[in-house]
Amino acid sequence: MKKTANEPRFRQRARVTTIGFAFTLLAVLAYGSTASAQETRQEFWPEADLYVKLNDQFRLRFLASLTRARETAKNTEGTLEVDFDIGVKAFIRQRLRNLPDNHRGKYLTLRTGYAYIPSFGEGSDKEHRIVLEATGRYPLPLDILVSVRNRGDLRWINGDFSTRYRNRLRLERDFAIGIVKFTPYLTGEGFYDLRKDLWNRVEFSGGAEIPLGRRPVIEFYYLRQNNSHSETQHVNAFGITFQWHI
Q1: d(Cα 11, Cα 116) in Å, to the nearest integer?
Q2: Within a domain: residue 3?
Q3: If you placed Cys at 108, which of 76, 88, 100, 114 could pair as Cys (CB 3.0 to 4.6 Å)?
Q4: Is there a domain that residue 107 lies in?
Q5: How far apart are the first and last CA of the chain?
Q6: pLDDT at residue 7 above 60?
């Protein structure tokens, strides 16, 4: 897309932000690969998501996952979560047809949900979590979609209450090669722990979502997690998520 003299300044800034984020992400991933094996865990994180569309604006999401060393130092964690999503004001929906997720074409989506997260192993925990999210989206040149998610976690871990703020930037683009469609993406997310009054975690990931038909989607990703105040300082995770949209 050619830039014109009348192009708004915020689009130019968004373009610079996108390029800068991509180079920063690559640099961090490259640096992370050099961390010593003693500090880094290699994990596999499977997940299944069910999306139930109520109408064009409202939907439900049911999530079940199994992770290790994501919220605890070494234990395996299970997550059962149910969410209610609200999509506000659609845009360029005709250009985002790769995936059955119609909320990708909304300028703003809101989410509230509840998650139960038990861990298994020595010193196991039980967490009850209320999730509050707001995600803004905007189309960039070259058919790139940028989204910024602001999320608050209200957490009760073994009865003790705490809060956490999370901010995630995501870049994605739809591609099609013949009949094969796929949507690669890059993300970066920071975690701010209000108990400790500091940013104590950052996660970077790259992956792709591949539709297998009108309803199912398979997602593959690699995630790098860096922790500044945890026994497990680094986690490299390969994840697979199966989505079903009805």
Answers
A1: 40
A2: no
A3: 88
A4: yes
A5: 35
A6: no
For residue 2, being part of any structural domain is answered with no
Asked, for residue 106, whether it belongs to a domain, the answer is: yes
Nearest by Cα to 91 from 69, 109, 78: 109
Q: Rounded to whole angstroms, how far apart are CA atoms 238 and 178?
A: 28
| CB 50, CB 61: distance < 8 Å | yes
176-210 pLDDT tens trace = 999 999 999 999 999 999 988 999 999 999 999 99
Q: Which two tokens stand for residue 17?
A: 């932000």
Distances in Å between the Cα of 206 and the Cα atoms of 2, 170, 171, 203, 224 are 28, 10, 10, 10, 9
Model pLDDT for residues 233-244, shown as the tens digit of each residue: 899 999 999 999
The number of residues in the chain equals 246
CB 136 within 8 A of CB 147: yes
Rounded CA gap, 52 and 63, in Å?
Answer: 12
**What's the chain's Rg over C-alpha atoms?**
19
Q: Residue 97 has which token pair?
A: 């047809």
Arithmetic mean of pLDDT, 138-152: 94
Full residue range of the structural domain in which residue 37 is found = 9-245
Phi-psi region of 70 (alpha: psi -120 to 50; beta: other; left: phi over 0): alpha
CATH number of domain containing 43: 2.40.160
Q: How many domains does the chain have?
A: 1
pLDDT at 123: 74
* pLDDT tens per residue across span 66-99: 998 788 777 889 999 999 999 987 765 555 667 7
